[in-house]
Amino acid sequence: MHPNALRVQGALRAAGGGAEVVELSGSTRTAVEAAAAIGVEVGQIAKSLVFVVDGEPVVAVLSGVDRLDAEKLRRLRGGHRVERADADTVRAATGFPIGGVSPVGHDVPVVVDAGLAAYDVVWAAAGTPHAVYSTTFDELVALSGGEVGDVRVDPAASRG
Ligand code: 5CA
Questions:
Q1: Ligand 1 within 6 A of 49 CB?
Q2: Which residues contact 10 (CB under 8 A, 6 or more apart)?
Q3: Could you report the per-residue pLDDT of 15-36, keeping only the tens digit for each?
Q4: Residue whose CA is at the smallest distance from ligand 1 atom 6
Q5: What are the two backbone dihedrals, phi and then psi, of residue 89, each rounded to the nearest 5 degrees?
Q6: Full-model pTM
Q7: In ligand 1, which atom is closest to the CA atom of 125?
């Protein structure tokens, strides 16, 4: 297993979770690719997006069908300035490359969008663009130590 995937598996175990990291031959780099490779709905993919609020990185986890509302994230974190992290910042903050950022296995604070609770089973990245694990909303929140909040663009507005 890739060292990053091993790190995620170790973090899941250390936090008391039973989730198993799986490495797939197909790409899981984007939510759409991950859904196809796993054989689930895009909505069940928990994408982990790195943003920087007042210089502090934060990982926002939301459904693959939703878009992050950066202004909501800024307000939730009580900051003044919010920007998307670039690739180098993503790796420096989490140790993972874009397309493999996991909700666990790093020290960056996590915000989990409440919209993900609509799905019984969700799949999250596990450190590489080929590694994922399945979990539930409650387990995702518990093992990531995440704060649950509303940080997605209002679905009625974004999906028309
Ligand atoms: N492995 C899947 C989930 S299983 C995954 O990581 N999906 S993702 O959506 O969380 O990761 C792709 C995200 O990385 C994109 O939605 C985008 O927000 C971000 N991203 C892609 N390219 C860049 C880039 N050049 N700079 C900053 N962020 C990027």
A1: yes
A2: 105
A3: 998 999 999 999 999 999 999 9
A4: 99
A5: -70, -40
A6: 0.95
A7: 4
CA 153 to chain centre: 16
Ligand 1 site-directed mutation target among 21, 30, 111, 130, most atoms within 8 Å of CB? 30
Q: Separation of 101 CA from ligand 1 center, angstroms?
A: 8
Q: How far is the CA of 99 from the centre of ligand 1 (A)?
A: 5
Q: How many CB atoms lie within 10 A of CB 34?
A: 27
The tokens 């387990």 sit on which residue?
139
99 lines ligand 1 (CB under 6 A): yes
To the nearest whole number, what is the mean pLDDT of the chain? 96
User: Tokens 């197909």 correspond to what residue?
Assistant: 26
The identity of residue 110, as a single letter, is V
**Distance (Å, rounded) from C-alpha 111 to C-alpha 33?**
23
Coil, helix or strand for 92?
helix
The CATH code belonging to domain 3-155 is: 3.90.960.10
Structure tokens at 33: 């690719």
Q: Is the CB of residue 52 below 6 angstroms from any atom belonging to ligand 1?
A: no
List the domain boundaries for the chain: 3-155
User: Which tens digit of pLDDT belongs to each residue from 140-155?
Assistant: 999 999 999 999 999 8
